[in-house]
Amino acid sequence: MTRPRPQSACSGPTRRGLLSAALASGLGLDLPGLLRARAEGRPAGSSLPPIRSCIAIFYYGGPSQLDTFDPKPDAPAEIRGEFKTIATSVPGTRISEHLPMTARVMHKIALIRTMHHENRLHDPASIHTFTGRLPPQGDFELFSAVPQRFPSWGGAVSYMMRDRDLPVAHAILPFAFHNVVETPCQGAGFLGPAFDPFRIGIDPAGQSYRADLLVGAEGVGPDRSRRRRDLLEAIDAQAASNQAREMRRHYEKAYRLLACEEVARALEIGREDPRTLARYGVPDGQWAQGGTTGAELGYARNMRGWNLLVARRLVEAGVPFVNVADFQQQGQNWDSHAKNFEQHRDHLLPPMDRGLSALIEDLDARGLLESTLIVALGEFGRTPRINSTAGRDHWPDCYTAVLAGGGVRGGAVHGVSDRFAAQPASDPVSPADLAATIFWRFGLDPACQIRDPEGRPFPLADGTPLTHMFG
Length: 471
Hints:
By secondary structure, this protein is α/β, with parallel strands linked by helices. The chain has helices spanning about 15-20, 30-40, 75-80, 100-105, 120-130, 155-160, 220-235, 240-260, 260-265, 275-280, 295-315, 340-365, 430-440; strands spanning about 55-60, 85, 95, 110-115, 170-175, 200, 200-205, 210, 320-325, 370-375, 380, 395, 400-405, 415, 415, 425, 450, 455-460.
């Protein structure tokens, strides 16, 4: 058996990888788990139909829970911070004053205010967040040279949907997020590179999107491509091995991808009504962005929201799982060790507020919200106590995840943090529980087993789904 080589999380399938990555026949579900995962009908313990898609928004760097969705207005000033709170469309639920658009759609949102884990550095925290499992290397930074071990949410969903023969089952945008360090947290891990995300890049200067795999090789037109395919079929006629058949399946997937007009059109946001672009982006002159110029300004002002617009378009095109990286991994992001309030007020919260609320309203207007689960969070939160540079530091002990759509009970709040938003006071939730919830909403049994290249079994997720938040 050819073992798939582990890949770093967001390296994505190269053209060669997409055409030649071998599916290891031993990487599969055991029979009972397979039968449960493929069972028709509704997720166990739910009257809801399974979701068709999930959009996972990664607020890299770690938003402050106190300055977003879990404010503590009665705490001392050194904890409470500078921001006031505002009422929302859910009586009794208040959030940061700098999230007014989100406040108006809070009745379509649920909050998990007691997310927690023990990884205090970005890379291991990201791995734990998006795989639901502790990073094997422990709590160490800079994992760029370490291959991903366990599959991410999207990688696992892509693998579990492999029999649907989708051109794209898992996409990630924008690729610019990983311009310095590639954290192994959003790929398929031991399931193999065939289930890594389809990468979508951006051109900040042109404010446009691209996907190299949707473009044929230079000099290879339709006629030449057709001749190549005829030659492949002639060779296949002489080969009957399992490896040849699997290779053939990968070639077929590549051909379908090159011909997938729906996915290509999804990236053409210029087709959208200018009013829609303005709703997701930033109308000229609405606010200034400190510390950014030129292409960076264009990206900060518009593309953080437009990334979510592309995610909606991908869902419409039939892509089941879409990861959206809200910020590049290094540079100005949610990692507000200094000037936390200035950064949140002027740079971080306004585009988040506009983009998230626009996505919820847009999906709802198109009849897609109930079948699409939105999950938005960072890899951790920020320290309750403000530091000497008016910042907040890393804090995985208690932070907030935002859910919308997918049958979630709008206005629900799971868990209560303590008076400083420092620890869960009740109902703590782990990354494993969140992973189990996502899989369960797809109609998958979190207890079903997947196997690594050595044949060792692992449950799809180690946690317990938050079933009470849906229905």
